[in-house]
Specification:
The protein is α+β, with helices and mostly antiparallel strands and about 240 residues long. Helix content is about 30%, strand content about 15%.
Length: about 240
């Protein structure tokens, strides 16, 4: 399935982009400003919610691709979005702590924004079942218990909007010397540790909470990945020996 580029009035060569595990992405070639078309599972309201979030990130010094509305004024058309293509050199893992000041500034600026439509935070999911990519109803009871215990163990603190997927593949050194932050698909309101724990070595409690989130949000969309991680979160118990 290819994106409906005509909905944006675009006629250009498309090349697939590698790296996406949950969504497909294509880049245009040869336009004055090349674009990226991405498949999305998000409803329009959840994509529109990103506009003020990304504006705050830009105000904090991060380069963020602008979402492009279609000719009809929609950010989502037939399950696809369109945004500017940003060029740059990828980050390495050891460079991740360098963006901590900007991410902390972004967290402070976004602290009063509401939850993303259809999403729940880790703390909400201690008592509720389904939000965003997480649906605990489809997970084994022992894993649900392990996830909730991991999130409950996090120190209590204020929530803010987080990017949710801070890893080197989503960060670029731009030609002008700036830093670009890509792929806001997992953005939501939650505890800041879910971002900060990806930029500097997390505590044991934070590491377990991040692992639990990755298992839960991947269970339906990346099942093999989720089940491999689940063995670290809650190892299967051997069958009881009959005496």
């Amino acid at each position: 399935m290819t994106p409906p580029t005509g909905r944006w009035g675009i006629a250009a060569e498309l090349r697939p982009l590698a790296g996406g595990h949950r969504n497909r992405a294509f880049r245009t070639i040869g336009l004055p400003q090349d674009l990226v078309f991405k498949s999305t599972r998000r409803p329009a309201a959840a994509v529109e919610w990103l506009l003020p979030v990304q504006a705050l990130a830009r105000a904090c010094g991060l380069a963020v691709p602008h979402l492009r509305p279609s000719l009809a004024g929609n950010l989502v058309e037939q399950g696809w979005t369109c945004e500017d293509f940003l060029a740059g050199n990828p980050f390495s893992g050891k460079e991740m702590p360098a963006i901590l000041p900007m991410i902390r500034q972004f967290h402070a600026a976004a602290s009063d924004l509401p939850q993303r439509p259809g999403f729940l935070s880790s703390q909400d999911l201690i008592h509720q079942t389904c939000g965003g990519d997480v649906d605990l109803a489809f997970m084994p009871a022992r894993l649900v218990q392990a996830c909730r215990a991991a999130w409950s163990a996090l120190p209590a603190g204020p929530q803010t909007v987080i990017h949710g997927d801070l890893n080197p593949s989503n960060l670029l050194h731009c030609p002008d010397g700036g830093i670009a932050l890509l792929d806001w698909d997992e953005c939501r309101r939650d505890l800041a540790q879910f971002d900060l724990g990806q930029l500097a070595p997390p505590s044991a409690v934070e590491h377990r909470a991040l692992l639990a989130w990755e298992v839960a949000c991947s269970w339906a969309v990346e099942p093999a990945h989720a089940r491999a991680l689940a063995r670290r979160l809650a190892p299967a118990q051997p069958p009881a020996r009959i005496r």
